[in-house]
Amino acid sequence: MSAFTLTDALIIINGVTLSDHANEVTVEDNRDAPDFTAFGATSKAVGKGLGDASIKVKMFQDFASGKTHATLQPLIGSTTGVVIEVRATSAARSATNPAALMTGLLFNYNMLAGGIGSPSMIDAEVKNASQSGMTYPTA
Prior knowledge:
The structure is a single chain. This protein is mainly beta and 139 residues long. It is 6% helix and 37% strand. It has one helix at 68-76, and strands spanning 10-13, 16-17, 22-31, 51-60, 82-87, 99-109, 121-128. The longest helix is centred in the middle third of the chain and has 9 residues, at 68-76.
């Protein structure tokens, strides 16, 4: 069995590479499951509905210019979608290193979190904001 250990993910939000501040990322691409069960059925009939995608990133907070706060804070109040891209490694896109790419809106951003003597960790969640949904380009 082949297993993959995530050590070099690439995370780009609105054109800013934030990989060097992140230590956890989750890419989700889901579909609703509408129930099409009619009277007289003995089992449920479920179809595939609308898509829903999100990317969640856990990062170390940094208030320096061009870093996490400067990149994310303007997005939490914005209704304009931005491009977010995640790859398993920082290598170029390829068949063995596809990107998860979507235009999304930032819905969660906790500016400050942590305890005494601990790094301030922030969570950011970007949800799909376009009809394209999540795409997986290899070039």
